[in-house]
Amino acid sequence: MAGQVRKIDYSPLSQPVTEADVAAYRQYQYASPAGVQANNSKKANNVLYVVLGFFALVIVVFSLLGLFLDGNPGGILWIIVAGVMAWGIYMFTVADTKRLAKLYKFAVKNNIVLKLGVLNHELDGIIFHLGRDKKISEAYRFDNGSEIGNYQYTTGSGKNQTTTEWGYVRVPLARSLPNMVLDAKSNNLMGSISNLPVSLGKNTKLKLEGDFNNYFDLYVPSEYERDALYIFTPDVMQALVDSGASYDMEVIDNSLMIYRRLRFDLTSAVELAQTFSIVNLLADEVRDQSNYYADERVASRADNRVSEPGKRLKSGVGKTAGIIAAVLFIIIFSFQVFPVISTVIEIFWGRN
Q1: What is the pTM of this model?
Q2: Residues 176-194: what's their mean pLDDT?
Q3: SS in 3 state form for the chain?
Q4: Which residues are bridge partners to 139 per DSSP?
Q5: Where are the domains of the chain?
C-alpha cells in the first residue's frame, strides 16, 4: 500500500491450507478482540447450518420410519437427498473456514491486521452510512493506516430486502481536505446514471480542463472550487484517468477512499498486487499535491482541519433509486387509473 517500505509476501495465498493453519485461525477467531468480531459475524451462517442440518436429520428419521413401518422403499431416496444436503453443508463450512484461515495466515506473515465482521468501524464516506446491518465483512489493515476490504449493508425489507456489497480501499493523507467525490463514468448505468448510492446534485459539479470530464464527474462543496483546482492538477488528473477510471473515489477528512461495486478477492495475490500498484500511484499523486494544503477559512494552518461548509458534501436519494421509484409509481398508478378510465369510456360510449 501507499507508504509501505517493506515488500509484501504473497506466498501464503498460494500455499495449501494445513490443519495447523486452521487451528491457528480458530485460536485467533475465538481468543482475540478481532476474533470476537469474526465469531459474531459468523453467527448467522452457523444458525443457517444448524437449521439445514436439522431438516436433513428430520428427513432421515421420517424416511427410516417410513421404510421400517410401511416398507416404503421411496424413503431411501430421501435419505440420499439428506446425505447429499449434509455433505454439501459440511464441504461449504470447511471451504469457508480454509479461506478465512488463508486470509489470517497472509495477515500474520505480513504483520497485517485482519478485520472480519466489524460492525463498529471508524471509516467515513458516502457508502458507510446507508442501510442497516452495516459491517466490514473482511479487510486487511496495514500499519500505516491503509486498508483494503469489502463492506456491506442491507436495505429494504421482506421480499424487497437487498444486501449491497462494495470493495473499498482507504489511504491516509497528511492533510485534512474538503470532501470531494469523483464519480467514474465507466461504471455508470447506461453510461449516464451514476452507480453511487446517493445523489450529489446539490453540490458543485466542477468541470476540469482536457478530457478529464469524459472519465469523471467531480463534485465539490460550494465555494471550494478553487481548493479542488489546487488538488486536481494536470498531473493528478492524468494519473486518475490512466489508472483509476474504473473506480469511484472520495476525498474525505484525511483519507482517500476508493470504491468499486465488486468485492476484492483478498485471497488472490494477482488481484492484490494489481490493486496495490494502482492505489500506490493514485495515492502518491494526491498526497504529494495535498501535503501543503490549508483551508484559508481556518485561522491557523497548524489546525489541519477544514471549515464546516467544506467538510461534507450534501447528499440525497441516488438517481438510480429515484428512477426505479418513478417507474414503480407509474406502473402502480396505471393499474389503478386505467381501469377507471376504461369503465368511464365504456359507459359514455354505451350511452351514445
Answers
A1: 0.76
A2: 90
A3: CCCCCCCCCCHHHHCCCCHHHHHHHHHHHHHCHHHHHHHHHCHHHHHHHHHHHHHHHHHHHHHHHHHHHCCCCCHHHHHHHHHHHHHHHHHHHHHHHHHHHHHHHHHHHCCCEEEEEECCCCCCCCCCCCCEEEEEEEEEECCCCCEEEEEEEEECCHHHCEEEEEEEEEEEEEEEEEEEEEEECCCCECCCECCCCEECCCCEEECCCCCHHHCEEEEECCCCHHHHHHHCCHHHHHHHHHHCCCCEEEEEEEEEEEEECCCCCCCCHHHHHHHHHHHHHHHHHHHHHHCCCCCCCCCCHHHCCCCHHHHCCCCEECHHHHHHHHHHHHHHHHHHHHHHHHHHHHHHHHHC
A4: 115, 149
A5: 11-114, 119-317, 325-352
Per-residue pLDDT of 266-310, as tens digits, reads: 999 999 999 999 999 999 999 999 999 999 999 898 999 999 999
Residue type, 216: F
**pLDDT, tens only, 122-158:** 899 999 989 999 999 999 999 999 999 999 999 988 8
- Average pLDDT of the chain is 81
